[in-house]
Amino acid sequence: MDNKKNSLHIGRLITAILFLLVIMFYFIILWMNSPKIILEIKSSVKNSFIENVDQDFENGKLNDEVIEDRTIATKTSFSEKLGNIFSKTESVINDSIPGKLSLIDWNGLTQRLLLKRMIPEPNDNNTVYKMDNGQLTYTYPDIGVRIAHKNFTVLNRYLKSVGTKLLYVQAPYKVNQDNNELPYGLEDYPNKNADKLLEGLQKLNIDFIDFREVFSNNFLDYKKLFYNTDHHWTTETAFFAYQYLLDYIEKNYGFQYNKQTYNGANYNQLTLKQSFIGSLANRVGKWYAGIDDFTFIYPKFKTKLTYMKYDANGSLYLVRNGTFEESVFYPERMDNPDTPLAYRDNCYLGGNPDLGRIINHKVHKGKILFVQDSFGKPIASFMALNFHEVDIIDLRYFTESYLMDFIKDETIPYDYVVILYNPSALKRSTYYRQFRFYDYE
Amino acid sequence: MIFSSSIFLLVFLPFVLIIYYTLYSQRLAQNIFLFLVSLLFYAWGEPWFVLIMLLSILVNYAIGLNIDLHRNNQVISKILLTITVLYNLSIIFLYKYLAFTITNINTLFSLTLPVPDIVLPIGISFFTFQAISYVIDVYRGQGEVQKNPLNVGLYIALFPQLIAGPIVRYETIANQINHRKENIADFSEGCVRFIIGLSKKVLLSNNFAIVADKAFSLPNDQLSTAFAWLGAISYSFQILFDFSGYSDMAIGLGKMFGFHFDENFNYPYISASISEFWRRWHISLGSWFRDYVYFPLGGSRVDSKWKLIRNLFIVWVLTGVWHGANWTFIAWGFLYFLLITIEKLTRFERTSGLRIVRHIYTLFFVCLGWVLFRSIDLSQACTYLGSMFGIGGRYTDSLARFYFLDNLIFIIFAVICSMPLLPYMKKRFHYHDLKISYILTPIFYIVLFFVSLTYIIKGAYNPFIYFNF
C-alpha cells in the first residue's frame, strides 16, 4: 500500500484537500441548519410509535398465528428509546444533507453504468428492479391470505345484515401476469397472491372486479397503463377504471347516476410532458429511472363539494369547500410544468388521507366507503362526482378504530363498501393492517 | 457509530478534525479531546456499554501500575497479571459466552437453567484484547506503564480501531500516545487510505452482502448449487472487503491524528497455503494469539508433535471462539486447526508443487470456512455445504443467473482488488514519480469517495457484521 512512506505526494495532498473540502462543506451547511434539524429530530422521535409497530410487522414478528392475540399498542424499553433517538438523529441528518436528491441522481447514474437491474434497499420491499421493458417495479414475496378471507367473511356477513353491498376491487400490478418482463430469475408473486385472494373471494361469494383481467380483455397496452417511474397506474388508466367501476355498480347494483360524469369528453385533460418523478425514481434517481409525463384530469362541468380530512385519531384537521379543483383536487400540483417533480399524483386528495370524507352538494343520494391505498386516490375523487357522500379510509394509517367499528358507528349505513387495493397490499409489512377489519378479541 | 455513515463522515469526523487541530501543540488537551469523542463514538450505539469500557480502562490502568510497582517481585507481578487477565476474560465471558455456555449445559444435561438475555457490547473482544495487551506488555517491559489513566483510556478506546480493529498492540503505540508527530504527508496518506477503506466497504462489501444474504436466507430446497457457490464466494468477498476496508479506514484515521497502526490485511486471497493465508488475514489477531498464547505455550519449538498439536488446537479453537459464541465459529476454528496442523506436519509450505493448485486448495477451504462462519448454526452450515456439492437441490436456477449477471462488474472489480495488481502496476511504471499522478490520483480517489458518499446518502444496504465479535 505504501510505496513512499513519509514522503509527501502532491496527488495525495490534493486528494486530502479535496476530501476535507467536501466533508467540511457538508458539515458547515448542516451546522447552519442545526436548529431546524434538532426540531425535526424531536418531532421524528415523537412520531416513532407507529413505525415501531410497522417494524414488528416488517420483521415478521406478527404473523397469522399471533396477529389474533395482538393489540396494536406496543411498549418500548428506555434503552430502545435511547437507541431510537440515535437512530432518528442519523435518519434526520441523512435526510438533511444538502443536495440529497442530486446525490441520489448520481448514484442512479453509477448504478446504470454498472448495468444494475436491481437497486437494493435495506428494506427489501423497497428494492427497485428494472424490467425488460425499461419500467421500474417492486417485487414482493409469496404470502398466505387466510386472514384476509376470514376477515372478508365476517365483514360481508355484517354488511349484508345492514343492506350494504361489499365489492373488492383488485387494482393491477405493474408486472403483467401474462408477460412479466421481470429480469430473468425473478418470480412474480404479487399476481399469484392476488389470484389466491380472488379465488377465495369467489368461493365466499363476495363480488370483485379484477382489473388485471379487465385491461387484458380490453386489449390495452399493459405497459402504458402505468408510469415508468412509479408503481401506480396513470391517471388515464385510473379514469378508465373509474368508468368501469361506475358502470359495474349501475349494472349490478342498480345505482343511477348522471351520465355527464361518466363521459371523458366532459373532463379537462392536461398533460405535462417530462414532469413527473415517480416514487421508484425517488429511490434510484432520475438518471437511472427517467422522467414520466403526467396527465391531470378534472371535470369541465360545474361541481360543488366539501372535502374533509381527518388524522389517524379521527380528528378533523382540514376542510376544503368549492369546486372539484378547490376541494378534492390540488391544482398547485400542476405548477412548474417544465420541472420534473415528485408527488404530482397527490393532486387527488392531497395525498393519502388517513380518513377522508367528500360531500357532493349537487348529488343527494348514494353513500359509499372506499377502503383503499394510494391506487384509490383518483378513483375515489372521480366517484365523489356521483355520490352524495364518499368516505375514504386508509387502514395503514387510520388507528382510531377497526374498520368494522368505524362502519358500525355510521348512523346511516353505507350503500356500498369498496375495498380497493393493488397486489402490493399483500405484502407482509401492510397485509395485517390493510386486511384486519375488526378486533378479534 | 460506524464509519460508513453520514453522521460519521459529515458531522463527527469534520468536527473532531477541526477541534483536534485547533488544539495543535497542546498534546494533553488533544488526548483528552480524542478520549472524550471516542467515548461519544462508542456511546452512539448503546450508551450504557461505555461504563463497561470505562471500568475496563480503570481496572487495567490500576493493575498495570501495580505490576510496574512490583516489577522486582516476580510472584506478586505474576499474580497481578493473572488477576487482570482473568478479569478481562471474565468480562468477555459474561457478555459473550455465558448465555451460550448455559444453553449448552442445559442441552447436555437436560437441565432448564435460566439463560440470561445479555446484549453483547460492540467491539468488546477488540478493546478487551487491547487491555490484555497493555498489562502483558507492561509486565514484559515491552511498553512503558502509563501513570495517567487518560493514556490507557486513549489506547483502549481510541475511536478509529475501537469497534472493528485492528487490535493495536500496546507496544506499537505506547510511545505515540504522547510523542506522535502529525504531518501533512501522513495526513494526506491517511485521507487516501480512509477513502480506499470506505470504498471497499460501501462499493464492494455492501453489494456482495446482498448476494450473500440472499443465498444464506433461502430455504434449502430453493438453494441451487450454483447459487450456493455464488453466495459463498460473495460472502468471501464481503468479509474481505468489509474487514480490510474497516482496517484501512482505521489506519487512515489513525494517520490523520498522527498514529501509526500496523497493517492488518495483506491480500490474503493470493495465499498458496492456509498458513500463508493466516499470515495475511487479520494479522493483528493472528499475531496477538501468536505472541500472547501460542509462544507462551511453547509454539512450534516443542519436544513432541503432540505438544505442537495441542498448542495449535488451543490457539485455533480460541481464535474460532473469539469470533463469536456459536458452534459455527468453533467449527470454523477447528477447520483451521486441522488444515494448519496437516500443513505443519507435512511441511506443506516447503514442498514443491504448482502454485496455482496450492492457491485453489487454499481458496477452496477458505471459502468453505466462510460458510461455517456465516451460517446461523451448524445445521444450516451442513445443509448449505450440501447444496454447494449438489446434495438435495437443483444444480442451477434462474435466480443464481440473475444475481450473477447483476453483480458481474462487482465480481470483476473484487477479483482485481483482491490481488496486489494496482500496487504492482504503480511500482512497475513508477507511477508516483509521474507528473500525471498529481492529477490522476486526486481524480481517482475523489470519484471513489463521491460515489461511496452517494451510496451512503441514498441509504443503501449497509450491514455491520461485527456484532458477534
User: How many beta strands in the DSSP annotation of chain A?
Assistant: 14
Structural class of chain A: alpha/beta
Distance between the termini of chain B: 16 Å
What is the total tally of β strands of chain B?
A: 0
Mean pLDDT of chain B: 91
Description:
The complex is a heterodimer of chains A (441) and B (469). Chain A is α/β, with parallel strands linked by helices and 441 residues long. Helix content of chain A is 39%, strand content 17%. In chain A, the strands form 3 sheets. Chain A has an 8-stranded mixed β-sheet, sandwiched between helices. In chain A, a hairpin with a 5-residue loop joins strand 8 (305-310) and strand 9. The longest helix of chain A is centred in the first third of the chain and has 23 residues, at 10-32. Mean pLDDT of chain A is 87; it is low at 49-75. Chain B is an all-alpha fold. Chain B has 2 domains: 6-180, no CATH class; 186-458, no CATH class. The two termini of chain B are 16 Å apart. The chains are: A alpha/beta (441), B mainly alpha (469). At the A-B interface, helix 1, helix 5 and helix 6 of A face helix 1, helix 10, helix 18, helix 19 and helix 20 of B.
Topology:
The complex is a heterodimer of chains A (441) and B (469).
Chain A lengths: L9 H23 L1 H13 L1 H11 L5 H4 L10 H18 L4 H14 L4 E2 L8 E3 L5 E2 L8 H16 L3 E6 L18 H15 L3 E4 H7 L17 H19 L13 E11 L1 H6 L1 H4 L2 E8 L5 E6 L5 E7 L18 E2 L12 E6 L6 E6 L3 H8 L5 E5 L9 H7 L6 E6 L6 H7 L7
Helix pairs in contact in A: 2-5, 3-15, 10-13
Chain B lengths: L5 H17 L4 H17 L5 H21 L4 H36 L14 H17 L8 H9 L1 H4 L7 H4 L2 H4 L4 H34 L7 H32 L17 H7 L2 H12 L10 H18 L4 H19 L9 H20 L3 H11 L9 H9 L1 H10 L3 H8 L8 H22 L11
Helix pairs in contact in B: 1-2, 2-6, 3-4, 3-5, 3-6, 4-5, 5-6, 10-11, 10-19, 10-21, 11-16, 11-17, 11-18, 13-14, 14-15, 15-16, 16-17
